[in-house]
Structures are given as C-alpha cells and as structure tokens.
Amino acid sequence: MLEVGKKEFWFVVGSQHLYGEEALNSVREDAQKMVDGLNESGKFAYPIVLQDLAVTADVITDIMKEVNYRDEVAGVITWMHTFSPAKMWIRGTKLLQKPLLHLATQFNESIPWDTIDMDFMNLNQSAHGDREYGFINARLNKKNKVVFGYWKNDDVKEQIARWMDVAVAYNESFNIKVARFGDNMRNVGVTEGDKVEAQIQLGWTVDYFGIGDLVQYIDAVTDEEVNALFAEYKDLYDFDYGDYDHKTWEDHVKVQARQEIGMRRFLEAGGYSAFSTNFEDLYGMQQLPGLAVQRLNAEGYGFAGEGDWKTAAIDRLMKIMSHNENTGFMEDYTYELASGKEAILESHMMEVDPTLAINKPKIVVSPLSMGDREDPARLVFDGKAGDGVVVSMADFGTHYKLLINEVDAFTPEEQAPNLPVARVMWTPQPNLYDGVKAWIQAGGGHHTVLSLNLTTDQIETWAKLVDLETVVIK
C-alpha cells in the first residue's frame, strides 16, 4: 500500500499579555484539555500537537516558519481563546505556506449565568477574537478553512477530520509523480494539458516513458515470482475460465501478473505514485495491462487510460484524501434513459478500480478489440452504492477548470452475463438530464474520478488552495 508518511497538525492558540499571567495559565490549561480531548476522541487519522501560546508577533512568526520547514506538519489549526490583536498575525500568516483552519469555538459550551463576571468575560471571548482574527485572514486572502461549533460535538470533529485529509493531500500533491507509459491517445482532446503549468500550480511532475523502458522491467520478472503472485490471485478472487481451456486461461492471467510485478518495480524505482497507459502504444507487450492496473489501483496508485495524466494525478490526490477507500478512475459509457431508471453506466475497457467493488471480484479473460494484442485478463465486479462526487479537470488553454458533480451511485440489479468488465452505476445530481447538460456545457470530460467517501466541500477546499476555477453541479 502506498503510504504518505507520518503527518501531524499544530494547534496554535491566540491570546495576548493584556490579561496577565494568571489568565494565560488558564488559557494554556484549557488548550491542553481541548487538544487531549480531540486526540482521544478517535475521530482523527493524524495527531494534533499543541504549540506555545500565540501572544506576540515574534512567537507567531517563529511558529509559522517552523511549520513550513517541518515536512511532517501538514497544517495549522488556530483557536482564539481570548481576543488576539490581528496585526500580530500578519507576518506569520503571510509566511505560512501550508493549509490553515480557523476553529471558531470556545472552551465552555454554555454561559454560566450564575457565576459569570468580567474576569470570565475577558478570559472567554472567542466570539470577540474570532472576528478580529477572521478579518486579517480575509484581508490577506489566506484561503483558510473556517469550522464553527462546540469543539466536543461530533459534527465539528468530522469537519476538522475532513479538512485534515484535504490538507495532507494538498501537501502530498507536490510529491505526485505521474509516469506516462506511451503518449496520449491520438485525436483525443480532453487528455491533453499543459504539464509545466500543472507542476507550477498543482505540484505534479509528469514524465513520459517509451514502452520499451517498461518492457525491460516486465521481462526481468522471473517465472517463480509470477507463479507466487498467481497463487495469491487464487486466494483473493474467483476464477472464471469461460470458454478457455485452463492452461490457456492461466497463461493469459500470468501475463498480467508479470506486468503487475514489472510495473510496480518501475514505479517504485522512480518514486511514481500515478501512471497512465495507452492501448495505441503497446510495442513489446503481450497484452494491454488490465488486471495489473487494477491491482496497483487497489494499493493506492492513481491511474487513467489513454495517456490521461491529469486524471491519473487527480485519482492519486483523491486516493490520499480518502485513504484509498471507495475511490477510483471512471469513464462514462452509456445512458439508461428508461423513465424512473435514469442513470449512467460507468466502466472502462478493463481498468475499473476494485476499491469500489461491492462483491468478490472474479478474474475474466476476454478479447479486446483495441490494441491488437492477446486477450487480456481483468477483474469483473459490481460497484458499491452511496452518495459520491465525480471530479474531472479540463485544460482550457488559459487556465485549468475543475468540475465536480454530486452523484447517487447504486448497485445494478440486472445481470450482465456478456459484459466482461466491472460496472458502476450512478445518477448525477440534480437529475440525469440537467446534470448531463450542465457537465457538457461546462466542458467536462469523459474521464473522471469517483469517490464515495469524499464530499464536494473537501474538493472545493483543495481547489481553493491551488487557485483552481471550480464548477459544482448538484
């Protein structure tokens, strides 16, 4: 499984010396209790670490400099316990290069009317501090996230956790490297794009490799390694021999096993976390990689077909954000237009991501008209049901545009005995007709990434951080 490494988030509490040392000691105690409570809640994939109180411009600036320097720090969560004069935050906030979340909350849930006095008012004035602090972030156009509510509430914790996933993905986006095995599919428009601008704006590195570079790795795989992986397949999947004799079928599956091992080694050697293939560019390969790609998808590698490096990178980004759960590359294939059943059948030639499988996948070998190679093996399954988001990015020459459509995915009830590929079904929001028209009019492509774990808000939060024009259809 591809890992992103150790990550943590720093918790910075705003206050000032005006209230005296006794008050600051109370601020420290409350902040520690809050951080301990958040960490012990079990809601977060990453730990929260309390920092020194932000009581001067120098302290704030030093904290933000350190955040930028420390690779394991994925972002900053700020909380205004008291009133924290915003001019103190200007230098440090301007220097901060990582995601920022303003947690607008307070230590106590309710106002203690029986005991409240001015000492309490001075110490617990988050409502006051939030406005001052919020102003400076808006003035600096910091593109920070704001979460409001009582910090012990589950919905607040869930919002923080989702932002954390976005923040980690934002940082890791600058480490995404896409290997293009072959070029783009000829005469296709949506797979093109400005790779230099993508690296400047989004952090993605995109490298081309001739198929011969990959074939060298595939040819170096031993028969013993192939047989060991084939035995693993037997434990994980059902075997559907169809009309093939067992030896021929197994030989075809072992071609994919050899490709899987070779591709993984190639990607690991170059530090690549995403890749694309192209059925028009298979010189020296026995089959178009199908099962091999799906197995790498399951490990967290981003992918897209026909040389579509933009979608491959988005796939990897969203896999980081979703912890590689229920997220993968998709392609629009055909419509269901019957009244009351309106939907879109999503699939691909073979490479449908098994993280979306609702049932145990089976390995099928079937002819493929594209590519002019041997019949390739692939995993076949039905997709899961759930509320999801579909994301695509288009290059409009002057800028990139990110399209997001909320969808209702469902597991198909009809059997498809002659369809030798996995299938995912969904109905776009607000409905098939308006959703499809809006997508087409906005220039959305046929290659997308579906996630049943992520939300529109999370995708928009990332897009805001990287200055992407965003179109949301829902």
Verbal overview:
With 474 residues, the protein is of the alpha/beta class. It has 14 helices and 19 strands. The strands form four sheets. Strands 11-12-17-16-15-18 form a six-stranded antiparallel barrel. A five-stranded parallel β-sheet has the order 2-1-3-4-5, sandwiched between helices. The model has no long low-confidence stretch (mean pLDDT 95).
Kindly summarize this structure in a few lines:
By secondary structure, the protein is of the alpha/beta class. It has helices spanning about 20-40, 55-70, 90-95, 120-125, 125-140, 155-175, 195-200, 210-220, 225-235, 245-270, 290-300, 310-320, 430-440, 455-465, and strands at about 10-15, 50, 75-80, 100-105, 145-150, 175-180, 205-210, 240, 275, 300-305, 325-335, 345, 360-365, 375-380, 385-395, 400-410, 425-430, 445-450, 470-474.
Write the layout of secondary structure elements.
Elements: E1 8-14, H1 21-40, E2 48-50, H2 57-69, E3 73-80, H3 90-95, E4 100-104, H4 118-123, H5 126-139, E5 145-148, H6 154-173, E6 177-181, H7 195-202, E7 205-209, H8 211-219, H9 223-236, E8 238-240, H10 246-270, E9 274-276, H11 291-299, E10 302-304, H12 309-321, E11 327-336, E12 343-347, E13 362-365, E14 377-380, E15 386-395, E16 400-410, E17 424-428, H13 432-441, E18 447-451, H14 456-465, E19 469-473
Parallel strand pairs: 1-2, 1-3, 3-4, 4-5, 6-7, 6-9, 8-13, 9-10, 16-19
Antiparallel strand pairs: 11-12, 11-18, 12-17, 13-14, 15-16, 15-18, 16-17
Helix pairs in contact: 6-12, 6-14, 8-10, 9-10, 10-11
